[in-house]
Amino acid sequence: MQLTVLSGAGISAESGVPTFRDVETGLWAKVDPYEISSAEGWRDHPEKVWAWYLWRHYLMQNVEPNNGHRAVAAWQDYAEVHVVTQNVDDLHERAGSRRVYHVHGSLFQFRCDRCEGEYRGELPAMPEPVEAVSPPECECGGLVRPNVVWFGEALPDDAWQKSVDAVTHADLVVVVGTSSIVYPAAGLPELALAQGIPVIEVNPERTPLSDAATVSMRETAAGALPGLLQRLPSLLG
Ligand code: APR
Predict the structure, then answer these.
(1) Are residues 214 and 125 in the same domain?
(2) Mind telling me which SUPFAM superfamilies this protein's record contains (predicted)?
């Protein structure tokens, strides 16, 4: 059985990582996720965009995978599991998932915004959130940026192709912790549904996918995922 998971920021929420559209408290309460994660935002004020991602990079060192990530990893004992994630954190990998496709990139890779060369140098320290930090400079004079996909940028080909294959060859797709509003990732469940592949949504809130999903569960990732496989017969009939 092939099981494909499409995850968003909500699966990491119970690890203490704020989602993109939760109202953030403190420093970034006023930050618009569309603005801070856009090529225009980077062009206009790279030091603010760099500070936001650098803080999230460091935040990840203090958080652990939760029971939602661990359940997805445990499913690998029963099925061929592919994880398509919009998340730039590494919590699926740290929980033990072996096939993880980051369609919006990763907080743990950095590259030059001019020569595109991978950056392996030192990162500035960031003991607490600050609004602006100057990004390191590349030898070519470009600025070092996080290897994440910003609005208006193309998704990584390899991750995207593997994600389309994983969704269209699945026996079941589980969509968890995503607002299902950012395309093209939000279009993946529709590909499965169009082929008659069952789609289960796990989200405490309704989303634009909720009506179309085969089953839509108003539950959290850490609450619903650990027992989900056992519930499939009753859920899918
Ligand atoms: N369990 C499951 N879902 C949860 C939980 C939880 N404990 N807590 C919150 N959620 C849900 C919210 O209801 C919301 O629908 O997770 C979703 C998070 O939505 P977003 O913050 O929009 O995150 P995401 O869907 O991953 O955003 C998609 O948008 O900002 C860009 O590139 C960024 O990858 C991101 C993309």
Answers:
(1) no
(2) DHS-like NAD/FAD-binding domain
Atom 17 in ligand 1: which residue has the minimum CA distance? 178
- Domain assignment present for residue 119? The answer is yes
**Could you tell me if residue 94 is inside a domain?**
yes
On whether residue 109 sits in a domain, the answer given is no
Residue 100 has pLDDT above 60, yes or no: yes
Among the atoms of ligand 1, which is closest to the Cα of residue 148?
A: 32
Give the whole-angstrom CA distance, residue 174 versus residue 191.
13
Check whether 87 is labelled as a binding-site residue. Answer: yes
Percent of the chain clearing pLDDT 90 (strictly above): 81
Over residues 170-224, the pLDDT tens digits come to 999 999 999 999 999 999 999 999 999 999 999 999 999 999 999 999 999 999 9
Is the pTM here over 0.70, yes or no? yes
Is residue 177 within 8 Å of 68, Cβ to Cβ? yes
User: Which among 210, 176, 180, 137 has a CA at the least distance from the CA of 3?
Assistant: 176
Whether residues 124 and 138 share a domain: the answer is: yes
**Residue 203 annotated as binding?**
yes
Three-state DSSP at 101 gives: strand
